[in-house]
Amino acid sequence: MNKFLYDLGRKCLIAEGWFPKCNGDDVAACLQRGNERSNAVVPSIMNIIKAKDEPPTYFKTNKFTSAFQGIVDSYGIARYREINPAVFTIVTFPYEFGIMFGDVGHGFLLFIFALVLIWKERDWEGKKIHEMVEMFYGGRYLILLMALFAFYQGWLYNEFFSMPMNFGSTWALQIGSHHSNNTFTRKDFDPAKTYAFGVDPVWKGATNELLYYNSMKMKMSIIVGVTQMTLGIFLHLLNAVYFRQWYDVLFEFIPRVLFLLSIFGYLCFMIIFKWCTDYHGQDLANYNMTGNMTPAQIANSSIQLFKGTAKAPVLLNELIFMVLPHPDSDNDNLYVGQSRVQTILIIIAFVCVPIMMCFKPLLLLRDNNKRKKHAASQMPQNADLKEKQHKDGTGSSVVHHIDGIEEEVDPILSEDGHGHGEFEFSEVMVHQSLETIEFVLGSVSHTASYLRLWALSLAHSELATVFWGKVMYTLLSMAPSQGMSFVVTAFCVFVGQSVWFFITLLVMMFMEGLSAFLHALRLHWVEFQSKFYKGDGHQFQPFSYSRLNTENQ
């Protein structure tokens, strides 16, 4: 009862609170049921009133989505009717975790762990369990999706506990005395014939294995990062359109998306363009044209050669050449006319910066001056109508007449109401400048931050390779090579497998899994949500006697 307010005019108790709109009928039914059980002479009346305070935020979740909503809420509660990032986190979070934790074997172990937690729902749901177990149990469906995406990425990387899986490689091992070295040759020289799914197993153990995997995973990380940041900017557009903040659409969304795509979107284009260029085929074409000609003969001939792999451009250099002098020869470029395109793109990016920084504050200043002039012109006409009270038999209310608009406000709510404050141009300008600087610098740092997908994926793969090669394989091969007995060999196999499995669970599953989880969390909180998510709302907390008793205890 101490939560109620007493109205002297109405001689009644008034309780104010929030409830989800979809539960309005349930609340009315509860009040009716309370009246019937208490045999009250005066029935309880529920009125929907217009509040000045910002409503709390409420998202209806279930046992599947609650973990993802908890990830977002740990960063900050969404504003009322702001886009909820948890909807996208359901897919993007386990996907990015899978990129860093990609391995078929490790994903399968994590999948078994998630199935055990789900299987124990009937025994553990609603019961007190150990807090460490409860933490994993609450995120059981999150772990399930993380395991599935790690399993999927493991098939793409073609790694099963760091070992490759061969389901029809396009390369064949050449073994024989007439070969100077054990090497591989293509089964079919048609460049269109590739491995069915994922990475060809021939890359695992090749001398240029790291060069290949580094290049592939680094470029993939850049594409994933720019795609997710672009999604965040478009979600900023949806927020601005919904709240009718047209200045944000024109002078934040448009220049931001142009700035990001002019530089890093263009980098993704160059990555895909280079992937689609058949440099190996160009080498074969050059060889067919030149035959056994010497370099001097080729230079003196009129043969027009393709660039080939030797002159394939380095994309990092191409990105630097956007702001530095670029070679004039189109033969050194990725495509014809590259210099002109990059000049246009860098001009667009530079023009977007002052648009983001200055236009919105200046237009807000103009609108504020117009409002002041309009209010000054209307003040003499409405001086005697500023505030009036109207009373009737049921109670009282306050009527405000401002600029010819009549607004009825309940006096109880108006006590706690507050305005938006006066417009301060300097404050708005500083705020907009800081946001612009943060976005421009953040576009560079956030894109580089997504390289953690490559770094952790590489570390995960190399650690698994080291543990298998130095622990499991060494002990398995040591006993037979020394001519030891069967018992000693079996003991070495048992010890090697036990040590390898213990290290796999402790280091790869727990430590590496926790590291990948935290890095995926950082990418969502900082790189993704900072593009559109305010996170300064307050959460809806239903009234509960059990919660009050817990707080009092």
Describe this protein's structure.
The protein is mainly alpha-helical and 553 residues long. It is built from 18 helices and seven strands. A hairpin with a 2-residue loop joins strand 6 and strand 7. The longest helix has 43 residues. About 6% of the residues have low confidence.
Distance from N terminus to C terminus (CA atoms, Å) equals 19 Å
Total of DSSP H or I helical runs spanning 4+ residues: 18
Strand order of the largest sheet: 5-6-7
Q: How much is the radius of gyration in Å? A: 33 Å
Helix- and strand-based class? mainly alpha
Q: Could you describe the largest sheet, including whether it forms a barrel?
A: 3 strands, antiparallel
Number of strands: 7
Order of helices and strands: EEHHHHHHHEEHHHHHHEEEHHHHH
Rounded average pLDDT: 82
Strand content: 5-15%
Silhouette? flat
Low-confidence stretches: 389-420
Summarize the structure.
The chain has helices at about 25-40, 65-75, 85-100, 105-120, 120-125, 130-140, 140-155, 210-240, 245-275, 280-290, 295-300, 315-320, 340-380, 410-415, 425-450, 450-480, 485-530, 545-550, and strands at about 5, 10-15, 170-175, 185, 385-390, 395-400, 405-410. It has about 550 residues and is mostly helical.
List the helices and strands and how they pair.
Blueprint: E1 5-7, E2 12-14, H1 24-38, H2 66-75, H3 86-100, H4 104-119, H5 121-124, H6 131-138, H7 140-157, E3 171-174, E4 183-186, H8 209-242, H9 246-276, H10 279-290, H11 295-300, H12 315-320, H13 338-378, E5 387-392, E6 395-402, E7 405-409, H14 411-416, H15 425-449, H16 452-481, H17 486-528, H18 545-552
Antiparallel strand pairs: 1-2, 3-4, 5-6, 6-7
